[in-house]
């Protein structure tokens, strides 16, 4: 005789729909418990992942803000060091055009022509704008163009962008140009402010 | 029988428990390992990004710190750059093209940490700098000096970076060069001698009043009359003025030719600027008739063919210089 387990020796009881044996109830209960456990694990995994994602976002945003701060500091440093030496670069400097070699002297006639080549020089100095503002003798604000020059006091190499994101560093310079009176050409030098605009990265 | 059933049930339950425990452990171990791996990977990546960030900041800082070397009255300026770590400075150059009229000066910095060089792939670009240096310039301390390049008007300030450990030996150098080296306080890097035997392990540069090829046994030969510099492999480059001569001595031919190309592109733009200025001030009775057209064509030849064409431009350049000095209104 085959050694069957004793519960297999009897025919399966017929049952009505919806009827469950104790064993089936136990299996169902176990299934539910297992499902609960899987759900718990899944939730835990989601929570752990979320936690790491949040930590990652926090670290990245911290690093990004640090990076932006460094970038702005470098821009500022560049503007400070550039403004002190820009007047000596060949596109601005007076050279010997006004008699002797002058330091921190800007040739206004040359700068007016530089405005014409402003597209070529757009990224050359790595700043947003360069402005030269005549300080003395005082006069009403008037932008210099081919038409208004020399009866003007502000030379912008590029159109000036104003706003919270832009700030300027300045330096005193002498602004010299050739003028003529009664067919006599003479040199005219005035006090001016050289301003370099840079972008504050936010 | 009931006992047997109970035992079987017990065993069955224990078997389940036995199966459940390792699964929980294994699951925990696998997930833990994955999380740990991801965390370590992220930390390494962030560390790498941090190193790259530091290298890029140093590159940008280096370019910015070169601003004060812009020259006013002086004939040259020297400064010492000290970095906290062993550093490799790569001075790279990008030739002008249709989009970037002045080309680019690029810096790439690699720093040593725990005996390993950081692997930087990001360059920082500047458009208004011309830096000549060995590639790479390696060390902790660097001598940086600059000299203006005039052709015949001031074109740019050329910057030279020499590691403090790197030394050169100038043999038979003319007096004006030995004096300048002394005035620029470069005597630690550059030794002036008459006999090559006194050079030791230094890189040798021979100055000849006139020559047509490199002198055997020297790393570099400068032919002063011919305005040509040869390296030991016979490659030749043209120069004009002391600034370009130093440029070729302290850098490789590839970097030199690229930078000369950029400098000449700036000369071309400055010619345009001075032409515009000449017309502009002529309206106020200020005349400065300079024939710049021919000079511009010659500069175009240098840009197209290379530094050896520089000597062809010298007569025009000297002529323009003379005319400007004698003009009613000097342009520069």
Give a brief rundown of this model.
The complex is a heterodimer of chains A (202) and B (332). Chain A is α+β, with helices and mostly antiparallel strands. Chain A is built from two helices and five strands, in the order αβαββββ.
Kindly describe this structure.
Chain A is α+β, with helices and mostly antiparallel strands and 202 residues long. Chain A contains 2 helices and 5 strands; from the N terminus they run αβαββββ. Chain A has one domain (21-202). Chain A has helices spanning 22-85, 108-116; strands spanning 105-107, 129-136, 154-156, 166-181, 184-199. Helices cover 43% and strands 26% of the residues of chain B. Among the domains of chain B are: 168-234, no CATH class; 259-326, no CATH class. The interface between A and B is large, with 50 and 51 residues.
Feature tags:
heterodimer, A: 202 residues, five-stranded mixed beta sheet, 2 helices, 5 strands, B: 332 residues, alpha/beta, seven-stranded mixed beta sheet, six-stranded mixed beta sheet, 6 helices
Number of domains of chain A: 1
Class from secondary-structure proportions of chain A: alpha+beta
Kindly provide the radius of gyration of chain B, computed on alpha-carbon positions and rounded to a whole number of angstroms.
31 Å
Provide mean pLDDT of chain A, rounded: 86
Ends of chain A: how far apart? 88 Å
Query: What form of chain A results from the Cα inertia axes?
Result: rod-shaped
Model regions low in confidence, pLDDT < 50 over at least 5 residues of chain A: none
Element-level helix/strand string of chain B: HEEEEEEEEHEEEEEHHHH
Please work out how many helical segments of chain B DSSP would assign: 6
Can you give the helix content of chain B as a percent range? 40-55%
Q: Roughly how many Å apart are the termini of chain B? A: 117 Å
Element-level helix/strand string of chain A: HEHEEEE
Q: Compute the number of strand runs of chain B.
A: 13
Relative strand content of chain B: 25-35%
In terms of quaternary structure, the protein is heterodimer
């Amino acid at each position: 005789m085959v050694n069957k387990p004793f519960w297999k020796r009897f025919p399966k009881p017929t049952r009505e729909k919806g009827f469950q044996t104790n064993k089936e109830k136990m299996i169902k209960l176990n299934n539910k418990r297992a499902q609960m456990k899987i759900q718990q694990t899944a939730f835990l995994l989601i929570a752990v992942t979320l936690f790491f994602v949040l930590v990652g976002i926090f670290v990245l945003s911290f690093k990004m803000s640090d990076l932006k701060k460094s970038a702005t500091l470098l821009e500022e440093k560049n503007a400070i060091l550039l403004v002190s030496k820009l007047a000596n670069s060949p596109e601005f400097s007076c050279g010997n055009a006004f008699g002797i070699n002058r330091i921190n002297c800007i040739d206004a006639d040359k700068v007016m022509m530089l405005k014409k080549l402003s597209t070529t020089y757009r990224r050359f100095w790595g700043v947003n704008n360069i402005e030269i503002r005549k300080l003395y003798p005082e006069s009403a604000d008037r932008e210099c163009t081919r038409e208004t020059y020399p009866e003007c006091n502000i030379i912008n190499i590029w159109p000036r962008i104003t706003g919270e994101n832009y700030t300027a560093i300045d330096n005193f310079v002498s602004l010299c140009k050739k003028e003529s009176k009664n067919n006599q050409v003479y040199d005219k030098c005035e006090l001016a402010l050289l301003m370099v605009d840079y972008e504050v990265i936010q | 029988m009931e006992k047997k059933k109970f035992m079987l049930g017990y065993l069955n339950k224990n078997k389940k428990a036995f199966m459940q425990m390792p699964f929980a452990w294994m699951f925990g171990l696998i997930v833990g390992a994955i999380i740990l791996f991801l965390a370590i990977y992220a930390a390494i990546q962030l560390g790498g990004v941090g190193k790259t960030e530091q290298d890029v900041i140093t590159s940008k800082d280096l370019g910015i710190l070169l601003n004060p070397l812009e020259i006013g009255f002086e004939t040259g300026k020297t400064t010492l750059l000290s970095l906290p770590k062993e550093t490799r400075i790569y001075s790279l150059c990008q030739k002008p093209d249709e989009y970037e009229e002045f080309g680019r000066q690029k810096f790439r910095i690699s720093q040593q940490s725990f005996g390993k060089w950081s692997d930087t792939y990001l360059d920082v670009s500047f458009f208004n700098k011309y830096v000549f240096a060995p590639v790479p310039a390696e060390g902790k301390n660097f001598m940086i000096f600059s000299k203006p390049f005039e052709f015949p008007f001031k074109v740019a300030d050329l910057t030279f970076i020499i590691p403090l450990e790197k030394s050169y030996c100038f043999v038979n150098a003319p007096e004006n060069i030995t004096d300048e080296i002394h005035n620029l306080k470069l005597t630690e890097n550059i030794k002036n001698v008459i006999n090559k035997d006194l050079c030791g392990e230094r890189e040798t540069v021979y100055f000849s009043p006139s020559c047509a090829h490199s002198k055997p046994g020297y790393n570099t030969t400068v032919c002063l009359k011919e305005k040509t510099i040869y390296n030991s492999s016979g490659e030749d480059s043209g120069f004009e003025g002391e600034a370009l001569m130093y440029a070729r001595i302290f850098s490789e031919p590839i970097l030199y030719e690229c930078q000369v190309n950029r400098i000449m592109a700036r000369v071309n733009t400055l010619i345009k600027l001075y032409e515009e200025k000449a017309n502009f001030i002529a309206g106020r009775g200020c005349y400065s008739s300079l024939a710049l057209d021919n000079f511009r064509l010659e500069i175009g030849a240098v840009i197209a063919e290379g530094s050896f064409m520089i000597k062809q431009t010298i007569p025009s350049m000297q002529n323009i210089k003379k005319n400007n000095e004698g003009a009613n209104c000097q342009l520069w």
